[in-house]
Amino acid sequence: MSATATATARPDGAPGALRHRDFRLLWAGESVSQCGSAATRVLLPLIAVNALGAGAFTMGLLNAAAWLPWLLIGLPVGAWTDRMRRRPVMIVCNTVSAALMFSLAAAAWLDALTTNQLLVVSLLLGTTDVFFRAAYSAYLPTLLPAEQLADGNARLQTSESAADVVAPGAGGALAQAGSAAVGFLADGLSFLVSAVLLARIRTPEKPPGGGERGPGQKALAREIRDGVAFLTRDPFLRTILLCDAAMNLFLAGAQSLSIVFLSRTVGADGTVIGVLIALAGLGGVLGAVLSPRLARRVGTARAVLLCAFGAGPFGLLIPLTGDGAGLLVFLVGEFCLMAGIVAGNVVIVSFRQAYCPPEMLGRVSSGIRFVMYGTVPVGSLLGGALGAAAGNRDALWILYAGNALCALLLLKGPLRSLRDLPVPEADAAR
């Protein structure tokens, strides 16, 4: 059975992943937290642009700060989380993130918010995100059997995409109304809700595996090398990673400019920007919902190729955006781009979780994120520099064209000749 096989169902008809109480708690907590974060992703840059006067390069710095920790600590964090129980790490990360958001709410309430504070908080939130994601990716197989990972990942991704539909409009409206404190406070509370729900999970977590481990730096370095070696030797993981990292580079640059482009170049107000991003998020919902069905119909390897080659060209519509009816061009381009990205991500994450040995998953996942997310601060600075030098619209042409061409990298590996990505024999026999 492939990693995207249909989940088994309960007698009452509930899909496989939802039959597990603890998965439902994880899903509910992440859904609430994603809603708060999705609103903040629109609110924070709009506050930076409209209230604090940030330009294209400053916006690139702000986006880069959130992702810089992946370059600094991404690899050792993966090895650390393979040594620790993952759920406590996730609870601590959510609690710290809540405190950081409350600090922004207090500063906004006192009219003392500065660009420097936004940069520092973005950097610290990015640090907690490194730990959380490393633990989170390796934790899901604790709650679900391998044949239900695709269903679980699809539901988690659907919730994230749904949050991108529901929440950005609220973030834009809050920015337009000057109510940043309320938005930051709500995001902080959403992190606390997620922490509480995680604390209620009962599934026992196995002690950290992976054989004998020493306590010192040499042992840690050896574990990191083992994870990197596994990743670089495997042709499937290596090929997908190369393509995703290159795409992230260009998309990060484009995303760092999207708010300032819509606000200053196109002339849209905060509420309209929030609504546009929310509606475009429906593409992500569609991609998450259809991904397992697409993978079953055409095969997991072909689904990855189809999503990469089919989505990228739609990004080239975004630089054509104008005011009035011209905003529909942005909506169509972003909607289709998000649908393809999310659908491909569900297939890839489910494959990786079923394919990698459990004791290596934290290190492999963090190694992948180290490369993928490590390109984001570089891409953000590239986008900011291009926007400042060539103008926002011309910069977006360059960045989205680069993203579309990255799909060609998938043709250099084994995916082009396969219908399905491989899964371990033990899982296939289930």
From TrEMBL:
Q: Where are the transmembrane segments?
A: 51-77, 89-110, 180-199, 240-261, 273-291, 303-321, 327-349, 370-389, 395-411
Q: Which coarse location class applies to the principal site listed for this UniProt protein?
A: membrane
Q: Where in the cell is it found?
A: Cell membrane
Heme recorded as keyword? no
**Xref: Gene3D superfamilies:** MFS general substrate transporter like domains
The membrane-topology field of this record reads: Multi-pass membrane protein
Q: Does the keyword Membrane apply?
A: yes
Write out the entry's keywords from A to Z: Cell membrane, Membrane, Transmembrane, Transmembrane helix
**PANTHER family recorded for this chain?**
INTEGRAL MEMBRANE EFFLUX PROTEIN-RELATED, MAJOR FACILITATOR SUPERFAMILY ASSOCIATED DOMAIN-CONTAINING PROTEIN
What protein name is recorded for this chain? MFS transporter
